[in-house]
Design a protein that fits this description.
Distance between the termini: 17 Å
Shape: globular
Number of strands: 11
Oligomer: single chain
Structural class: alpha/beta
Largest sheet: 6 strands, mixed
Strand content: 15-25%
């Protein structure tokens, strides 16, 4: 009986030998690099920006994971980065992205930090950045301002921190190399019909997603509306699923821009979010970002942690698992079963 490289690796892991073969790496084997994004699991990080002891600089996390998380308080042209302070910065982003400079800077320096890593490693694996806009776009801060902060869209990219050409955007996925027209299917339809590009195709790219905040859940909805109006173009609006499928009631007519869902693992394990819901998303090739802060338990058990990642892939089709155990040796890239 023939066996693929991916299944051989999974067999080794199940037998207890995988820890030697599968080191804690963000690099995929050739077999996984050829797979589309919806058919792999990538390692992610929970609240990466506040882990100053673990990651001296935000970009240090990219040695361990493929997705990082940044919490943002957006108001009055300010973009504060902290967990709970809406008018201050508390994070591991060095000023202007220069490692060794003072940390606790605003979103501009966090983007500069990602940009510096990107310039130094132009052929890096796909990097995903999840933004939680804690209070939504508030008091003058808008989806357009967010895009301009990153890629200076209003000036044609002249002062871009990260050039738009280096970002994998919803328009790239929906329209391909051409321009969208009135007859172009929605992003949701395109993903359902064609799926996502392969990891190989996405090398050297950065991908942004926006999730609802704890104070206001409005940011993804506003960003999807701006996408429909042609006023925004860089980020994927994602929705946190807490119980039933609320995509239609949340996004309304702009639902076609939503192709990423974010879910707490405990809600899946406990049945609050039914397995049939995530099965349906998976059939439509939507990406599922699942948050499981301690897959390896306490104290950390690497083998148990990797078995947990496999279980999240097998039972819930997890494309990304975000954890607080980034440097434990648990996170790695593998094909979904």
């Amino acid at each position: 009986m023939s066996m693929t490289i991916a299944s051989f690796r999974r067999t080794l892991l199940a037998c207890g030998f995988g820890l030697t073969l599968l080191n804690a790496s963000v690099h995929a084997a050739d077999s996984e690099d050829s797979l589309p994004l919806q058919k792999v699991q990538l390692p992610g990080s929970h609240n990466t920006y506040e882990k100053k002891d673990t990651f001296n600089s935000l970009a240090d996390a990219f040695s361990y994971v493929r997705m990082i998380e940044i919490d943002v308080w957006a108001q009055l042209d300010k973009w504060y980065v902290s967990h709970s302070n809406p008018v201050g910065n508390d994070n591991n982003c060095p000023k202007s992205g220069v490692v060794g400079s003072d940390r606790n800077q605003d979103l501009r320096s966090c983007i500069d930090t990602i940009a510096a890593y990107h310039r130094q490693n132009p052929n890096h694996p796909l990097l995903l950045v999840k933004f939680e806009l804690k209070g939504g776009f508030f008091l003058g801060n808008s989806p357009q301002a967010f895009d301009n902060l990153i890629a200076d869209i209003r000036n044609g990219g002249a002062n871009a921190r990260i050039p738009e050409r280096d970002i994998f955007t919803p328009l790239d996925l929906r329209c391909g190399k051409g321009a969208c027209t009135a007859t172009t299917p929605t992003l949701e339809r395109v993903v359902a019909d064609k799926g996502w590009p392969s990891l190989n195709d996405l090398k050297g790219k950065i991908m942004f997603m926006i999730v609802p905040g704890t104070v206001s859940d409005s940011a993804p909805r506003e960003y999807a509306r701006a996408l429909s109006q042609g006023l925004a173009r860089l980020a994927f609006p994602a929705l946190i699923i807490k119980d039933q499928d609320t995509r239609t009631s949340y996004f309304g007519n702009d639902i076609g821009w939503n192709v990423i869902l974010d879910i707490q693992a405990g809600r899946l394990d406990g049945g609050t979010v039914a397995k049939s819901v995530v099965d349906g998303y998976h059939r439509k090739n939507m990406l599922l970002s699942i948050n499981d802060e301690a897959p390896g338990g306490t104290p950390v058990n690497v083998q148990a942690g990797r078995q947990r990642l496999q279980q999240l892939a097998r039972d819930y089709h997890a494309n990304i698992v975000n954890t607080d155990q980034e440097t434990s040796g648990i996170p790695y890239v593998f094909a979904l079963p």
